[in-house]
Write a structure and sequence with these properties.
The protein is an all-alpha fold. It is built from 19 helices and no strands.
C-alpha cells in the first residue's frame, strides 16, 4: 500500500512538472507572439505610417531593450522612430550606438542621420554620418536609401547636391514600401523649381499619413500666398487622430482660438496638450505654461511656475515659448512690459523658422534684422 502512495505522489509531481513546463512553453510562445506584434507596429509606423505604436508596445520595447542589451532590434526601436518622448529614463542614443556597432542597418541609417544633423545629444560629424548611411543603403536598408536620397537632394558639407541621384534613391525606397521617400521626392522637385510636382508628392505623402508632409501642408495653408484655414484645421484633426504630437498641439491651439469656425472645447484641448507633452512635445509644454500664466485652455492658474517654464523653454530655443513669452512682454500682462526684450525674443524665434514670430514682427513694424 505504501508503494502505491509513493507511486501516486511521484505521478502527481511529474504531472505538475509537465504542466508547469507546458505553461512555461505557452507563456514563452505568447511573449514571442507579442514581441513580433510590437515589432510589426513599429515597422508599419516607420515604413508605411501605420498607427503610432501603443503605450504598451513602447513600455514593453524599452523593457526588452533593458533585459536584452545585445538585441539590436530593441535598441533601435527605443530610438527616434520608436518610443518618441514617452520614455524619459532610457538612453536611446547609447542604445542606438550599440546597435550601430553590431552593423544593424536601420540603426546605422538613423544614427548616420543624427550625425549629419548634430544636436545636444550627438556631435555633428557629416562625413561619418554620410558613410554610415551609405553603408546601410548598400546593405539594402530602405530607411538608409531614403535618407541618402535626402542627403543628395539638399546637399551637405562635403556632399554636393545631386538631384538625379536623389530622385533615383527616393523612388527606389518608395517602390520598396518606404513611403517616407515621397517627401524626399517632393524636396527634389522643389529644388528643381517644379513647385507643382513638389506639391503633388507632398500631398501624396500627406494622404499616406506622413506627419512631416502634413506639417508642410499646414505651413502652406497658414502662411502661404493663398491661406486656407479650413484645410489646415482638417489636417490638425487628422494628425490628432494619429496621435502626432505636433498636430495634437496645433489642433488644441486651433480650438482655443476657434480657428475656421471651430467651437472652443477646453476639455478636449487640455487632453490633447497633455498627450502631446507626454510624447515629448515642447511646444505643447510651452502652451501649458502659457495657460498657467494667462488661464488659456482653462488651465488652473500657477503664474510663477508657468513663467519659469516659459523662460526655461525659451532659453532652450523652443521658438514657440520665445514667441509666447514675447507676447506677454509686449502687452505687459503678468510681467513688466519690455518691448525691446520682446523684439529680441521674436527675432530669435523667427530666425529659428517660426513663421508666427515673423508675422508678429511684421505686424509690429519691426524688421527681422537690426538696421
Amino acid at each position: 500500500m505504501r508503494y502505491h502512495v509513493i507511486f501516486a505522489f511521484f505521478l502527481l509531481a511529474s504531472c505538475a512538472t509537465l504542466s508547469s513546463f507546458a505553461d512555461d512553453k505557452s507563456a514563452a510562445a505568447a511573449d514571442a507572439a507579442q514581441a513580433q506584434g510590437d515589432l510589426r507596429q513599429f515597422h508599419d509606423w516607420l515604413y508605411r505610417f501605420g498607427a503610432r505604436p501603443s503605450d504598451g508596445a513602447v513600455a514593453r520595447t524599452v523593457a526588452r531593450a533593458r533585459a536584452n542589451p545585445e538585441d539590436v532590434r530593441w535598441l533601435f526601436w527605443t530610438g527616434k522612430f520608436g518610443v518618441d518622448g514617452r520614455v524619459k529614463d532610457f538612453d536611446w542614443v547609447d542604445g542606438l550606438r550599440r546597435a550601430v556597432e553590431k552593423e544593424y542597418p536601420p540603426a546605422m541609417a538613423l544614427y548616420g542621420t543624427l550625425l549629419c544633423e548634430g544636436s545636444s545629444l550627438v556631435t555633428r560629424d557629416v562625413p561619418r554620418g554620410v558613410e554610415l548611411i551609405r553603408r546601410a543603403a548598400v546593405k539594402g536598408d530602405m530607411l538608409a536609401t531614403s535618407q541618402l536620397g535626402l542627403v543628395y537632394s539638399i546637399g551637405l558639407p562635403g556632399v554636393r547636391p545631386d538631384l538625379e541621384r536623389a530622385e533615383v534613391l527616393a523612388q527606389r525606397a518608395v517602390d520598396h514600401g518606404m513611403l517616407r521617400g515621397l517627401v524626399v521626392l517632393a524636396n527634389t522637385y522643389q529644388a528643381r523649381g517644379d513647385g507643382q510636382k513638389a506639391l503633388q508628392y507632398v500631398t501624396q505623402a500627406s494622404d499616406a499619413g506622413d506627419p512631416e508632409a502634413m506639417r508642410m501642408l499646414v505651413e502652406a495653408y497658414l502662411f502661404g500666398r493663398t491661406p486656407d484655414l479650413t484645410k489646415a484645421v482638417e489636417l490638425f484633426q487628422r494628425g490628432a487622430l494619429m496621435s502626432e504630437p505636433s498636430l495634437l498641439e496645433q489642433y488644441a491651439m486651433a480650438l482655443e482660438l476657434e480657428l475656421a469656425g471651430l467651437k472652443q472645447d477646453r476639455v478636449l484641448s487640455r487632453h490633447m496638450l497633455r498627450r502631446a507633452i507626454s510624447m515629448g512635445n515642447r511646444t505643447a509644454e510651452a502652451d501649458w505654461a502659457y495657460g498657467q500664466v494667462t488661464g488659456a485652455f482653462g488651465i488652473a492658474p500657477a503664474e510663477k511656475t508657468g513663467l519659469a517654464t516659459l523662460q526655461r523653454l525659451a532659453d532652450a530655443n523652443v521658438s514657440d515659448a520665445q514667441l509666447l513669452l514675447a507676447r506677454l512682454l509686449l502687452k505687459g500682462e503678468h510681467v513688466n512690459q519690455d518691448r525691446p526684450a520682446a523684439i529680441v525674443l521674436m527675432r530669435t524665434a523667427a530666425r529659428l523658422g517660426n513663421k508666427r514670430a515673423l508675422r508678429v514682427l511684421e505686424q509690429e513694424g519691426v524688421a527681422l534684422e537690426e538696421q
